[in-house]
Amino acid sequence: MRFNGVLRVSAVLLVVVLVTVVVEESAAEYTKTTKHRNAYASMMYMGTPRDYEFYVATRVLIRSLAKLNVEADLVVIASRDVPVRWVRALEDEDGAKVVSVDNVNNPYRNQSNFDRRFKLTLNKLYAWSLTDYDRVVMLDSDNLFLQKTDELFQCGQFCAVFINPCIFHTGLFVLQPSRRVFEHMMNEVRVGRENPDGADQGFIGSYFPDLLNQPMFYPPSNGSILDGNFRLPLGYQMDATYYYLRLRWSIPCGPNSVITFPGAPWLKPWYWWSWPVLPLGLQWHEQRRRTLGYGAEMPLVLIQILVYLGILAMIRLARPNLTKLSHRRSEKPAASFHSALKLTAFWSILATYALPFFIIPTTIHPLLGWGLYLLGSSTFSFLAATVFLLPLLPLLVPSLGIFGVLLVMAFPWYSDGVVRGLCIFLYAFCAAPVVWTAAVRTTASIQSSIDRDAFFVVKSGETLPSSRFNKWC
């Protein structure tokens, strides 16, 4: 009897433990899938030359929102062809909820003014299908959050910012999800509703044509949710170009909360070369350093550094033999070969500055990117000077000039953007004669070597010309 009682108690305890585990797992799963009534959402799709860059930007956006402790779910609307490993990284490492969707067929792709890089931006309309949420703040990946903006969830059915006096920007807008509105939008896409640019900007703008006449949004202090459509204050979408005139933010309309970068696609803030051309690029990378980091790119950076150091060591140790192998010939070649050699020398010098630029990981930190570029261009300059018997200093002048202009652009104490622009112009004006002189000197050195047959002929009893590797000017 006593043994049976122990068994019963053990069985009851086991059942309680199992039920507790199941309840906790269910609660955890529920919390993971639907934690909040509202959501911040972004989108990802494939098919552009910059898919990876936007993937990195989306991860930085999601992590920066999480770091601000926003009281909302973080959602990524991803097309079904987004790589599985990217989806898992967003879900498991970044805490995002990924919603897989089919690409919206864009009927405007044959318009004369259609930009093909926007062919899948109509996927943004899927934000209206997120009916598990009361409000959704839809975001482009190039938004940089300076502070928490959860008050936006108090806005009405549709709210957006006019960074253009007459056209609101779809880089950030607030919406109330609705299956009815979503299906109506899909039908409007199919019938070819008027769309000035063939992208999400033109379609959504034509769907809410009277937003300019709506009142400005001011969040109620009691936390209540407004009804209707509203214009958002400019502080929720501060165009980065506003900053470059004064080199500081001075937006009196609403909180200075979100920076957007709607300019040229190749000057988005995640590209290493965008800074210091655009000073705010460093601020975006600082946010990435604090959130996502640069672990994905660092192996490639280290490999390139080792390769460049290896090339420099090879030049230093094998310089005499390299000169002999490159230039010893038994007879004088034809004049056409002279021309070919001159062309090869010129293209090699151009490659000295072009090749390092294209092999650097595009989303690396600007300080690492520019440092790696200058190391690579200097290494190839040493190599070209050795192979073509050229003075080294003229070949290094472009690297020195680039380093100088970086210092001028990055100088942090300009009073405003006009003064910064004038200083850059003055530097370019002073540097241009130096660069031109270096180019003329290099061209003359190539021609002189060819005229003396220094590359080709070694007569009987004649010694090879000494290497000019150490001849600096």
TrEMBL record:
Keyword Transferase present in the record's keywords: the answer is yes
Taxonomic placement: Eukaryota, Viridiplantae, Streptophyta, Embryophyta, Tracheophyta
ATP-binding listed as a keyword: no
Signal peptide residue numbers:
1-28
Q: Which UniProt keywords apply?
A: Glycosyltransferase, Manganese, Membrane, Signal, Transferase, Transmembrane, Transmembrane helix
Residues folding into a coiled coil are none
What InterPro entries would the database entry show? Answer: GNT1/Glycosyltrans_8, Nucleotide-diphossugar_trans
The record's PANTHER family line, in alphabetical order, gives:
GLYCOGENIN SUBFAMILY MEMBER
Specify the protein name. Answer: Glucuronosyltransferase PGSIP8
Which parts pass through the membrane? 298-318, 339-364, 370-390, 395-413, 419-440
State the organism named in the record: Citrullus colocynthis
